[in-house]
Amino acid sequence: MASANRSQAAQGLSLIAPPLGYALLIMAAPLLTILAYSFFKDGYLTVIREFTLENYASVWADPIFHKIMLRSLGVAALVTLVTVLLAFPVAYFLSFAVPAHKKSMWLFLITIPFWTSYLIRVFLWKVILGYNGVINSGLTSVGLIEEPLTFLLYNVNSIVITLAHAYAPFAILPIFIALEKIDRSLLEAGRDLGESRAMTFWRVTLPLAMPGVVAASLIVFIPVIGDYVTPTVIGGGKIPMIANMIQAQMLDLDNRPLGSALAVTAMLIVAVFSLIFVALNRRFLKVRQ
Amino acid sequence: MMKGSGLRAYALLYLLFLYAPILLLPIFAFNSGTVISFPLKSFTTEWFGQMFGNATLRRALTNSLIIAVSSSVLATCLGIFAARASTRFAFPGKGPIMGLIMLPLVLPEIIVAIALLVVLLSLGMTLNVFTVILGHTLICMPYAAVILSTAFNSLDRSLEEAAYDLGETKWSAFRLVILPLVMPGIISSLLMSFTISLDEFIIAFFLAGNEPTLPTYIFSQLRFPKQIPMIMALGTVLVVLSIVLLTIAEYFRRRGVARTGAKDTGGFL
Question: So where does this one cross the membrane (chain A) (predicted)?
Fold first, then answer.
């Protein structure tokens, strides 16, 4: 048996080698390079390979970094909250009210917009929310408003709306999967024991769905923080988020060590927030095992 | 029964919210007004004509097709290895290794793009279509692995063993028994990866050098108001193309699930 296991392991490892090698070469090695660069000194058009913590010191001391990082965290938190709250009833509907044979059709319908040109969808939100945009020109021509609504454009609200739209399916799927796993007899038991429908939801369904909610939150929060397109297109470059700052430092200003330190710091902050979030929900995640 | 009628209404409204931008796209693509706003002017196909006459756009399309075909084939090949290894064999470090392969799903693309860019530049490589393929293969690989794992997972292992008992070698059993059964998964993975690559902007933006791809071309035109109606026409074509490809992918995914006799657990991801 031991030799069978060993040959299993050997076969498995040799099969996994090509994708693993690719991920190491194209992703892990570049990420480690960034990590190394963040400790190097910047020379004119080159990088001086001398260990320093200066980059990190200047990232942390930079008030612009604080402002942009806080904005990115705020936007990502708000987008996560909005998407998860809006998505939960849809996931619940899919899992509990849609007949089994129609579920994959609904999921397909929900995921289609997600796969169609991200760039054009973001731009269309700018068109919809714009000063002369669809909402404003529509409302003006109907006569509901006289002056265009300015609170819609070029501000954090419009960034949040656009991102909440873009990441919606990300939030629905994990919650749906968690709801699907719930043993329906538990809910019946709750009802039989005299709980109202609302109380059964609150005390049985919701706690059991929490792993999905936690997963959905992370899956939305992490990519939103690093989003580059939306702040560029919607904010018109006036409301940068952390991805714009990294890009500017790396390419426009060509200070790779500082840009790398910025990227590493941002990733660490995101990781810390994600870990805190998971730790806060530890109680719910344990139930599952 | 009344159960869920409120929820149904909400879900339909939600779908409307999801589709709102896509529904506006063809409206403005066929509208003769040069400004994207209401009220609409008259019907025109001028913007589509403009699109077909644009040389840069044709170049961007060629580049995008080369990139999308190459990355979807590469990502699917790598995905087959990953799916076969993870569904069939136990090996040390399986969890962390699979985690690493799946990491591009959650890693912000800007980080992947910038890191790869820095390394490529310091190696003195010129940026072109090839460097974009490197990046796109990486981000398509996890999707391919997920789709193919579902296909490999629903395989009945006794079929494979029966092939060995009948004297087939490992490779011929794979080719004659397993491959035909997972073929729908492979087609589905190819189409998904193709769609992802065709639509991907960030990596192409950083790694393409001076070569345009469709998304980077669109991005470069967004700041010229005169070009917007043509971009709307292009967007309409792309959206229709994506929907067609995804529908075919979904068809094959379902057929694959049905072929191996497993229960359908739902869409992508």
Answer: 20-40, 73-94, 106-131, 151-179, 200-225, 258-280
